[in-house]
């Protein structure tokens, strides 16, 4: 960790002396230093000792440590259950209460999908998807049937309007002559 801090200080001094305009990539490297190197998954564990070391790395006991299939591209990252933020206990004393997680907690590989403002894999719906589609289609088909019935039988009697006055030869609807 001291190595990362030392390098970050060197780069920040370099930026202060040379200006930020020509070294924007160096500034980004200082801002994100250490993150990729520290948390990047290792190679897929092949022996029991490698599995135990990977379980310790991710704060898991060896019995709970299970990896994704070899060749999936996730390396030694553990296969964790999909648990949304909304399911976790809201009264638990957490380090980061807004996201309901603790510092250093190993996350699911798809954690960004299971945040509280997105999908919850543990949610049980009140109605089945078939009931939801049937309700949607049923209500709109009922309104469509009412509109067709109204059009066919001419049931519009709430707003009595006079017939349209289209110009025809020989018919005078109004004149501009003064009344005597």
UniProtKB/TrEMBL annotation:
GO cellular component: mitochondrion
Residues annotated as transmembrane: 127-147
Domain of life: Eukaryota
InterPro entries: NDUFB8
Key words of the record: Membrane, Transmembrane, Transmembrane helix
Name by which UniProt lists this protein: NADH dehydrogenase [ubiquinone] 1 beta subcomplex subunit 8, mitochondrial
Taxonomic lineage from the root: Eukaryota, Metazoa, Ecdysozoa, Arthropoda, Chelicerata
């Amino acid at each position: 960790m001291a190595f990362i801090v030392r390098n970050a200080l060197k780069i920040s001094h370099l930026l202060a002396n040379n200006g930020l305009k020509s070294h924007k990539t160096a500034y980004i490297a200082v801002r994100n230093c250490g993150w990729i190197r520290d948390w990047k998954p290792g190679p897929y564990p092949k022996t029991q000792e490698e599995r135990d070391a990977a379980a310790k790395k991710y704060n898991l006991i060896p019995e709970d440590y299970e990896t994704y299939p070899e060749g999936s591209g996730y390396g030694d990252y553990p296969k964790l259950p999909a648990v949304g933020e909304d399911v976790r206990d809201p009264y638990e004393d957490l380090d980061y209460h807004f996201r309901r997680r603790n510092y250093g907690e190993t996350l699911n590989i798809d954690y960004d999908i299971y945040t509280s403002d997105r999908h919850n894999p543990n949610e049980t719906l009140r109605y089945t998807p078939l009931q939801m589609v049937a309700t949607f289609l049923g209500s709109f088909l009922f309104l469509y049937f009412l509109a067709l019935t109204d059009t066919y039988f001419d049931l519009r009697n709430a707003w009595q309007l006079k017939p349209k006055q289209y110009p025809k030869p020989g018919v005078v609807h109004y004149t501009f002559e003064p009344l005597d």
